[in-house]
Write a structure and sequence with these properties.
The protein has eight helices and ten strands. It has 355 residues and is α+β, with helices and mostly antiparallel strands. Among the domains are: 114 residues, 2-Layer Sandwich (Beta-Lactamase); 117 residues, 2-Layer Sandwich (Beta-Lactamase), CATH 3.30.450. It has a five-stranded antiparallel sheet with strand order 2-1-5-4-3, sandwiched between helices. A five-stranded antiparallel sheet has the order 7-6-10-9-8, with helices on both faces. The protein is rod-shaped, with a radius of gyration of 45 Å.
Length: 355
Amino acid sequence: MIKNFLIQPRILISIFVVIVVVVFTSALVELNQSKKEMLELLEEEGDSLLETILSSSRNALISYNKIEEEVKRRLLNNANTIKIIEERGMITNSFLEKFAEENNIYRINIFNSEGKKIYFSHKDIHHKYLSTDTVKKYLKPIFNGEKDTLIIGIRQARFFGGQRFAIAVSTKDRKAIVVNINADELFKFRNEIGFGVLLKNLTQNPQIIFAVLQNEDGIIAGSGDIEVMNKIATENPFLQRTNSNLYRWEIKKYNTFEVFEIIHPFIFEKDTVGIFRLGLSLQPVNNINERIIRRIIIITALLFVFGFVTITLIFVSQNFNLLSKKFKVVESYSKKIIDNVSDGIIVVDSNDKIF
């Protein structure tokens, strides 16, 4: 009957093992679920950040284009005014010089159809360096009658430092009136609102590894980890998977660290400029996972120690109770024998002396 009340050691060990397995499995499931939720949160934040970048980039381009359109309109108005004066035969170098000064124009040149400069608003400092072949090359559409207006745009100055923004209009007899302004301020403004500055400011955040605008030819603008940027510039298979408007993300391993990379095509005025690639550090997520793993290990170790101590105490308690019950049985049995025996009983010690 005593055995019926005892818990067998193997049963206790089995229960303990089952409890440890259940706790450990639950912890692993919770770890994977937490990692999944953190990645989903990172994806949402990355998507929001990327949408902000795309919106800011579009706004920057729109702002610059509007300013450039205003510059074009002003230069065209000035050029058409000069055209009217020229067709009336009232053009002189002194008039052009005064007109340029009053309208904040850097240079005004008028070329005949042979590419020879016939009027100018400034001293002809580099006239001998500017060949008619060069002029014909740039103004060919006007001289050939293909265009009446030519937007040359921003160009590096040929003989002096700085940037120039130029346009040209034709006269009735195919002369070319070329008007240009100093575009250093415009160029500076473009650089200040351009992709490079935007991406550079973005990567001031230590959790952003890189931010890149890239097309099939390579990186257009980028900031961040240069080594990683050089590597992603050659990933054509990755680019080929992004030929849609869909937002995508992927965990990539670069050297010794992982990056949560999100990408989205950058479309401006229905043209695909390239794709934005944003690399976010997974270190915060990894740090959280490491803390969870440490807690799992500590909890498992404490559970193991607690279980070991509990089982040991149960074993000791059961053995003590078992011995106590056996002793009581023997004691009771011996007492009954002694109480009912009719003969004398002598107890001796190990030396055969009466005890």
